[in-house]
Amino acid sequence: MKPCASNRKLIVWQTLNALDAPQARKLRAHLETCAGCRRYLAEISNLTEGLVTVEVNPDIQASDSFHRNVAHKLRAATPDSWREILAASIQSQLWNWRVAVPVVAALAFVGVLLATWPPPPVAAHPSAAPSVMLAAGSDNDMVPTMANYQRMADQSLEKLDALLTRQGKRASPAMPSYTASTRSLANESF
Q: Which residue segment(s) compose the domain that 102 sits in?
């Protein structure tokens, strides 16, 4: 039978006479009813009695070589950098399935998410020639804009000349022409 987890520390303190009176009374009352805690008290009491009876000889001194060996082994045992500490902690945690399974699942989720994510729209490079805009209702004539003229000139100057000639011979749409004098007349008619 195992001792109660909540009483282990109190039992050890009881063997060292470190408990105050109310805690000691409460622990003694518990020990009367719990066989596991009584056995643990007996084991700890034997251990503390054994430690108390050990004779300490203060005249023993360690040699310099012993101190050097201990210091060398301590330096060799401690990691040199945070990278080694991180690598050791990761390596120890990778074998723990409670950590490894969620990490693998999260990485798989991110991988699927990245694989199915739509790519961003590709912006057209300014020098790339997009399709030529044609004027509505005309045969192979482009809308008269500077960008379209520039595209046609990039293709060939002869094509640009032919386009300008065709557009120059076209009848312009009927649009009213306004001048300063006609504007004052337009304002009066309203």
A: 81-108
